[in-house]
Write a structure and sequence with these properties.
This protein has one domain: Rossmann fold (3-Layer(aba) Sandwich), CATH 3.40.50.150. Helix 2 packs across helix 3. With 198 residues, it is an alpha/beta fold. The chain starts with 9 loop residues before the first helix and ends with a strand. It is globular and about 45 Å long. The chain is built from 7 helices and 7 strands, in the order H-H-E-H-E-H-E-E-H-E-H-H-E-E. Belongs to the methyltransferase superfamily. RNA methyltransferase RsmG family.
């Protein structure tokens, strides 16, 4: 299904299928997409597509507002040697993420039941944010837990140009490098990659 677009090991395929079934059997609704093919394309492939294409380097990644585990849990499946922090302020969603990590035997996942702006003692190499907040808000709220070479991947829609305009002053002030890419098939997505330059 998604192996037409990316290469999967047997273990990765097994864990993705189990993750799909965990969502189907969840006691509360984490996604409106229940159809298997749509779930795989719009959630699983969307989560990992940029990483499979560009292979950005990181040892620690923080998924901001991880919700149902997209993209954080999916990234953890593909990057077992990296520490993947799932930052989720809503307790029942955080509990689901902990449950999913146990069921999928993903020892590299650390669930933080907090808002990103309330974290004080961490420094992350990489941040992801999908369907959480405006680009500028994400940058501001996560800035104190970034370091001089941190990067962000924002999963955005067609309104990305407007969000970049709003964030322009912050981007210039902090000398951030910005790249973006629009995908139309097999799903619609604007990926915005932002990098600190020291």
């Amino acid at each position: 299904m998604i192996d037409n677009y990316i290469t999967l090991t047997d273990l990765q395929a097994e864990k993705l299928d189990l993750f799909y079934n965990l969502h189907l059997n969840a006691t509360f609704n984490l996604t409106s997409i229940k159809d298997r093919e749509q779930f795989y394309i719009k959630h699983l492939l969307d989560s990992i597509f940029f990483f499979k294409k560009h292979s950005p380097p990181f040892n620690t990644l923080c998924d901001i507002g991880s919700g149902g585990g997209f993209p954080g849990v999916v990234i953890a499946i593909f990057y077992p040697d990296a520490e993947i922090f799932l930052c989720e302020s809503i307790r029942k969603k955080a509990e689901f993420l902990k449950f999913a990590a146990r069921e999928l035997s993903l020892d590299n996942i650390i669930v933080l039941n907090n808002r990103i702006e309330d974290l004080k003692t961490y420094k992350f190499d990489f941040f992801t944010a999908r369907g959480v907040a405006k680009l500028l808000d994400i940058l501001k709220k996560s800035w104190n837990v970034s370091h001089e070479t941190s990067s962000w991947l924002m999963y955005k829609g067609e309104n990305l140009p407007e969000e970049l305009k709003v964030a322009d002053q912050f981007i210039k002030k902090h000398y951030l490098e910005v790249e973006y890419e629009r995908i139309e098939d097999p799903f619609c997505r604007s990926y915005c990659f932002i990098r600190r330059c020291g």
